[in-house]
Amino acid sequence: MLVTISRTRLLCFAESLHLRCTPSLHSSRGYSKKGQDSNEINNEGSEKKRKDLLLSLPKTKLTLTLRDGAAAKREKVIQEKTGFSKLYEWQRNQKQRPEFVLHDGPPYANGLLHVGHAVNKILKDIVNRHKLLEGYRIGYCPGWDCHGLPIELKAIKQKDNAVNDLCPLTIRNRARNFAKGAIKQQKATFKRWGILGDWNTPYLTMDPKYSSCQLNVFYSLYKKGLIYQDFMPVYWSPSSRTALAESELIYNAKHVSQSLWLTFDARTIPESLVQLSEGKILKKPVKLLVWTTTPWTIPANQAICFGADIKYCCVETADTMYVCCEEFVPTLKDILASPAEVTLTFEGSELLSMTYCHPLNNEELPVYSASHVTSTKGTGLVHTAPAHGHDDFHIAIDHGLSVKSLIREDGSYSPEAGPQLANKVVGKDANETVLELLGDHVIKVEDFVHSYPYDWRTNQPVIIRASLQWFMDTSSVKETAIKCLDSVNIYPKSSQNSMLSQLESRTYWCISRQRSWGLPIPVFYCRSTGKPFITVDSVNHISKLFLEHGTDVWWKMSTEELLPESVLQKSGIKNSSGFVKGEDILDIWFDSGVSWACILQDSNEEADVYLEGLDQFGGWFLSSLLTSVALNEKPPFKSLVVHGFTVDADGKKMSKSVGNVIDPMDVVDGSKASGIPSYGADVLRWWVATSGLQSNIPIGSSILTRCNEEVFRLRKTCRFLLGNLWDFTPDKDSVSYNQLLAQDSYMLHLLHDFALKAIQLYADHRYNKVTSIVDRFISADVSSFYSSIIKDRCYCDSRDSLARRSCQTVQYNILDVLIRLLAPILPHFAEEVFQYLPKLQHQQDCNSLFKTTGHNINPEWEDLAGYHRFQPSLQIKARFNEMIGPETPSSFDVVIWASGDLYDNLKVLQPTYVSTNSALVEILQASQVSLSNQRLDSAMDDVELVTASCSLYKPDSDATEKHDYVMGVLPCQLYMCTRCRRSVAKSSALRFCSRCADVIAEDYQ
């Protein structure tokens, strides 16, 4: 009776309000049609509806606005409010936590950052923030590679002085200041991207303390015999005037060399060939035919090599007998364009005692067998210049040949090459001069397009040139290093072979450079013998000077000061007048490659993760591994994570000249010049994560637009969920798992399943998969499924009802888990949501999500039985949607007949025969559902009946069984409720359904 009276009074009350129809609860209530321009959910219109109809409409201060760089502005506020700059220090003070160390491969301090830097640093930050949320204490000291030619060249270009006019100290001072400026600029950008790290005390390879440590590593390797000095061919850059390591080379696939076919006159013919040819070979001049792509090396020729197992021919013309491999004969005939006949075929071993005359100086030279000679390219006879080829050099060592280096540091011939060649420059006029001097020895010249090494800094061709250099003997540690890799996890696994191939191909490492800006090699040379002098005492003394005065003392102080008598006397030497200090500096890969020894002392000189680009297999990964294995017999890393290179949207390499370069800060702050709107740092980070570790990482306007839409979709969904928690206090209002509605517990199962997958993907560094399943979870599970079915009870049920608090509990947990999984990728957004998320009592004073730990996943949520129990209703929902097509589900009533186990299963979701508010009704989104185990009358008027089947899980057999059911769909028989907009009112005379009448009556009372 009380309810009836209340409803009567309610109807009178409702009439007096002159209520207007409210929007359908199946739309995004309270959202602007221009979603991205709307602000708070509780706008004026929805607030009036809230008051008039007592609707619990969404209400939150989390905005959607993206105009005028709103995202970027919000991020700056979030960084300040949540203490981004103080987080690293805070977490370092959490001494009880286990340690996780990601060691930073230092970027060059040589200018503005590009998108490649963004990929690298953001991926590192994703790793660190994920580990931080898992309860680790992060060790991440950012570093900068401060030495090297790129910085030196930029420092030199700051003034008009020619390079030769600048003394080393001037160059070093400018380079140091340039590096400091670049570091300051880059550091600010990294912090703007939200990178967590020890920004107050980063490591710099130019710091005296770092340099001192590096000297000690150098001497330790020297003492073990792994560092030595030798005269041998190395890659040499005339444009940089220094030796280069293989890791400092890039290859130009379209390089054009001047290739040359030339002859060398045979002087001594082996007796075996005379006999094989029955003396014919002596009747005409015999010429050895050679092909080369480096004519400028002919003056340094010391031998010709052949393959002992290759078949060679004597090709006779009217006046000459040519010797070449059998495969080259057809090409030779084409080149000669005159009658030519093969008169003799023989094994290469028959050439063993032959000699020939050098075409420029008539010197008699030998012919040798060599394993590197093939018949697949060229003539099968290889011109050998020991000063300009690695294979050539080994031939010289094996046979005691002299190694003549006729090329100076700038790529020009020295006077020793003769007056006609002196000062001619390789790559300019050297080849032409050599061709002129060769005269009739040349039979053909043509351009040859091939892949050729270039200096990666100057983008100019390099040469191979013998010089006195310092080397690390990598061949001695190679096998141990390969074995050590067995204990290293490499992500992705497909990259492992790249590391192995780099190791297997590296026999030595040239670690000396002939420049000014770098760490000096701490060696002195005897004036009379040229022998190097280095002892533990001399290194300790220099190390102490570096710590006290900086590394410039090597150039500022005299040899007597750097190598005082007190040091020499320990080696039995009286004074330093007989010594001169060295002028070489260390390779920058040695600088950064020993960072494990200089930075990781507190973690046993071992990091959990090294994370860099693919190119570092031949760079920092390799130099770090080799030096660590050499001294510690273990790798300096437990895991290697390897990412690819950025390209434009079409997969092309980005180039300023092409105009396809995207500045990462344009993505963050926007740029009118490039036409890129301000997306904020989180969209940049999302793009990095979506790219993952793939070898090519495309970026372009369409890709950024897609990333922005995905992040906006996340924001929109989280805003909806937050809006529904405006009156929810977790400690007080949460519903225990066993009291949740079935559809709510099912949603938690989906959340549980999604979260565990995401956590595993984080562990496997598959960040592109993380973003993929996040987007799917948000779109399919949260937005399309769950949010759509709970709006009615969330907005219209009594605020403290179990049904409403049940779905609020789930929405709270979705947000709580989701932002923890998003936080490593989208830290600004996650922190922003965390500020608005209702807090547990113990979190009230916590201003940062990253000061909490754990993913907050309840094991109860797995509930596989509940998951399987829910599947038939979802299959029925899919069949129902097929039947009604584009029509709105709430416009229909549904009648379902089922029997046996299927009926029992559905009855859990709808205990009564007919219902307008059961779990089954909510799942189907119908007006009302009738559920029966009595067979339906197939002749029912206006009802479309279909027979279908669904799968029902049987736990006893761990299998599914097919169960048939009959479903009928008919236009809804009830009337529209003015408040909830559902067709569930029992009479057209009533403005409200019974549920809404009760809610308003309850409040009215």
Q: What fraction, in percent, of the residue positions are helical?
A: 25-40%
Query: Largest sheet at a glance?
Result: 10 strands, mixed
Helix/strand structural class: alpha/beta
Reading off the top of the CATH hierarchy, the class of the domain at 252-459 is best stated as Alpha Beta
With helices defined by DSSP (H or I, 4 residues minimum), what is the helix count? 33
Beta-strand percentage?
15-25%
GO molecular function: aminoacyl-tRNA deacylase activity; ATP binding; isoleucine-tRNA ligase activity; metal ion binding; tRNA binding
Enzyme class: ligase
GO biological process, one term: isoleucyl-tRNA aminoacylation
Main location: mitochondrion
Annotation keywords:
Isoleucyl-tRNA Synthetase, Domain 1, ten-stranded mixed beta sheet, 1005 residues, M/V/L/I-tRNA-synth_anticd-bd, single chain, 39% helix, Isoleucyl-tRNA Synthetase, domain 2, aminoacyl-trna synthetase, disordered N terminus, 33 helices, isoleucine--tRNA ligase
